[in-house]
Design brief:
The complex is a heterodimer of chains A (about 140) and B (about 110). Chain A is of the alpha+beta class. Helix content of chain A is about 35%, strand content about 30%. Chain A has three helices and five strands; from the N terminus they run βααββαββ. The chains are: A alpha+beta (about 140), B alpha/beta (about 110). Chains A and B meet through helix 2 and helix 3 of A and helix 1, helix 2 and helix 3 of B.
């Protein structure tokens, strides 16, 4: 099993964490056999999940802790996002497509397109969002 | 300004940045709105430089479309990469915009619409 963890602070005006996701986590997806389009979809879904933490859990407050861990097993890619912000509303959004010309509301659609299996729990004030992408079974 | 802008045959051609995400979407939205409201509502958004865009970036383009249509204009999109096109298809926005392979064809299409 391969594992990689990244840690950074919430920064509503910054993009440095995008480079961390791309440089440290996406190589695991490529090593697991994902093609460029699949890697783009996973990266995009992770960015949307982190955006939600920055915008909703931390309400755009900079400097708050966020971590993203990635485990790659033969069966799946498993990402776990942790933050100490406000709890997520339950149930989690279904990711239904937004109306065609709506200004927003597409984040969860993108997250669920990248990760069909999603779990959330809050433990001791820490939000844990687990995003799982099954991998094709090796023959 | 977060966007590159020029005029061609009475059409505003706007090139989006390499990354259009939550961090720069607010500025891009304000800039695009200003460009549209200063012109005639006929806009080509060139995505040829854009390698990555999130839902905040999509919202910038949709807001531009809404502003242009209020002026009885439109926003045409040009030079999308395969990955950006996949994002538009996933979110069904490809049904809302006219999409062209190159910028010149998008500009010409406004002429044909007259």
């Amino acid at each position: 099993m391969q594992r990689e963890d990244i840690h950074f602070s919430s920064d509503p005006q910054g993009m440095a964490w995008h480079a961390l996701i791309e440089a440290r986590l996406m190589p695991l997806a490529r090593a697991a056999g994902c093609n460029d389009m699949e890697v783009f979809g996973l990266q995009l879904a992770l960015v949307e999940a982190v955006n939600n933490i920055v915008e909703h859990a931390y309400r755009l407050t900079p400097g708050q802790p966020i971590s993203v861990g990635c485990e790659c097993t033969p069966a799946a890619l498993r990402f776990e996002l942790r933050d100490e912000g406000m709890p997520m509303p339950l149930p989690l959004p279904s990711g239904e497509p937004a109306p065609a010309e709506a200004d927003g509301g597409r984040g969860w659609q993108i997250i669920r397109a990248g990760f069909p299996d999603i779990h959330y729990e809050r433990v001791d004030g820490v939000n844990r969002l687990t995003l799982i992408r099954p991998l094709p079974t090796a023959v | 300004m977060s966007l590159t802008h020029r005029q061609e045959h009475d059409v505003d051609v706007v090139t989006l940045p390499e990354r259009l995400v939550m961090a720069n979407a607010g500025e891009a939205r304000a800039d695009l709105k200003q460009i549209i409201q200063s012109g005639n509502g006929r806009v080509v958004v060139d995505l040829g430089e854009t390698l990555f865009m999130d839902s905040s970036g999509l919202a910038v383009v949709v807001a531009g479309l809404q502003a242009a249509r209020k002026m009885e204009g439109d926003v045409y999109l040009a030079r999308m990469s395969d990955t950006i096109r996949a994002l538009f298809e996933l979110t069904r926005l490809h049904t809302v915009f006219q999409i062209f392979d190159d910028e010149a064809a998008a500009v010409r299409a406004f002429g044909k619409a007259d």
